[in-house]
Write a structure and sequence with these properties.
Distance between the termini: 86 Å
CATH topology of the largest domain: Protein Transport Mog1p, Chain A
Radius of gyration: 29 Å
Strand order of the largest sheet: 3-4-5-9-8-7-6
Number of domains: 3
Shape: globular
CATH architecture of the largest domain: 3-Layer(aba) Sandwich
Number of helices: 14
CATH superfamily of the largest domain: Mog1/PsbP, alpha/beta/alpha sandwich
Length: 400
């Protein structure tokens, strides 16, 4: 009997040595064996959680590692990975180089954006990858590195992690509003300039979404309300190009053309002022984005025009009689019409075309490429959800 108990005890010890698990309120990761070191330091994330796992070699140097961040709030994964990783805002990426193009893949069962890069640390070279994807009303960032020339196991660990939060895919503004309102009941969400999102609700007629924003650095008594609201409007218009695409709550409001109301209050709950953004302003912003992408084209078209005008000038000196004949011929209206035909011929290219999505594409980039509005692409492709497109997906582009 004692022998049986001893064997069972050794078996339990052996099992504990095989794997280790770390979990928080968001996700759970289990390592392959006990050679991995795991930490879970929530203090590194103002809202959300972070887990670091690492495997060392015999000399105690890092052989491979992974960092998993969960941010409460749904952001566009492509823009997030471009800003944080490729843009080197994340501390892990500041000494990195050799970034590839961002491409779409799968991670932990979710559609993800991925980029590969290189990093050197303590005389070792590492092959690195970064993934960004959405899980419910949260965005996950995964950073992984393994020493060059060695096999990678860390990807297997992270790809097998399980999530304990709601993983439902959000599509409508109503779903985003419900998710955000549940979140702000637990804690305020930072939204920049020390301000916090402290309430989210949709009007009974579903035409307006109100964001309650707490402003801690002023009080109702010491602020000029009209000037404050005007400053907020100017700041919003400057940031709208990115904000309306990056923040998926705002993106859904824009896409469904709902009014957006910011209700500013001080820390005591006193109303400071209200800013209302109407749907017509979204269209204006989208048109401005397209206009900003067009300026180089008119300059290129303007270059050959002086050259064309300069060509006939030598002909006027050499053969003035022929010039007189040329002037008389265009006079009849019947001959003027054929000159307009070449301008109308390109109308055939205005017919709808099919575009196949390539790595690095997004709706804004495609809209700029074809000179159309993002709203036109959405209207012609009802299958697009949350402005998310996939590599190889076929889009109908209707040019005006």
């Amino acid at each position: 009997m004692k022998r049986i108990l001893l064997i069972m005890a050794l078996a339990v010890i052996g099992l504990n040595a095989v794997a280790a698990t770390v979990e928080n309120e968001y996700f759970k990761i289990t390592t392959l064996d006990d050679s991995w070191f795991l930490t879970n330091d929530d203090a590194l994330r103002p809202i959300g959680a972070r887990v670091d796992i690492a495997r060392m070699d015999a000399q105690g140097a890092t052989l491979e590692l992974a960092r998993v961040d969960y941010m409460e709030g749904a952001f566009d994964p492509l823009m997030y990975i471009n800003m944080q990783v490729v843009g080197k805002k994340d501390v892990f990426c500041r000494s990195a180089s050799g970034f590839t193009e961002v491409y779409q893949t799968r991670m932990a069962g979710f559609d993800a954006q991925c980029v590969q890069f290189k990093k050197t640390s303590h005389n070792y070279s590492y092959d690195c990858e970064a993934y960004a994807f959405n899980v419910g009303y949260g965005t996950v960032l995964v950073l992984m590195a393994h020493r060059a020339g060695n096999p990678s196991l860390v990807g297997r660990l992270v790809d097998a992690m399980t999530f304990k939060v709601d993983t439902k895919q959000l599509t409508t503004s109503g779903e985003y509003v419900d998710a955000a309102s549940k979140l702000v009941k637990r804690h305020h969400l930072p939204i920049g300039n020390n301000e916090h999102l402290s309430g989210v609700e949709m009007s009974p007629d579903s035409t307006t979404v109100t964001l309650k924003v707490t402003v801690p650095y002023i009080t109702k008594e010491n602020v000029n309300v009209p000037a404050f609201v005007m400053t907020k409007r100017d700041a919003w218009l400057k940031q709208a190009h990115e904000a309306l695409r990056f923040n998926l709550l705002l993106a859904s409001i824009t896409r469904e053309r709902k009014s957006l109301r910011y209700h500013y209050v001080d820390t005591k709950g006193n109303e400071i002022g209200t800013l209302l953004i109407v749907p017509e302003e979204y269209e204006q912003i989208e048109n401005e984005m397209l206009a900003q992408s067009q300026p180089p084209q008119p300059q290129q078209e303007a270059v050959p025009q002086p050259q064309q005008e300069a060509v006939p000038q030598p002909q006027q000196e050499v053969a003035p009689q022929q010039q007189e004949v040329v002037v008389e011929q265009p006079a009849p209206a019947a001959q003027a019409a054929p000159q307009q035909e070449p301008e109308n011929k390109p109308a055939a290219t205005d017919a709808p075309i099919t575009y196949v999505v390539k790595p690095g594409d997004n709706l804004t980039k495609i809209a700029k490429q074809f000179g159309v509005k993002i709203s036109d692409i959405r209207a012609a492709n009802p299958s697009i959800k949350n402005d998310q497109i996939k590599i190889g997906q076929k889009l109908v582009i209707k040019r005006q």
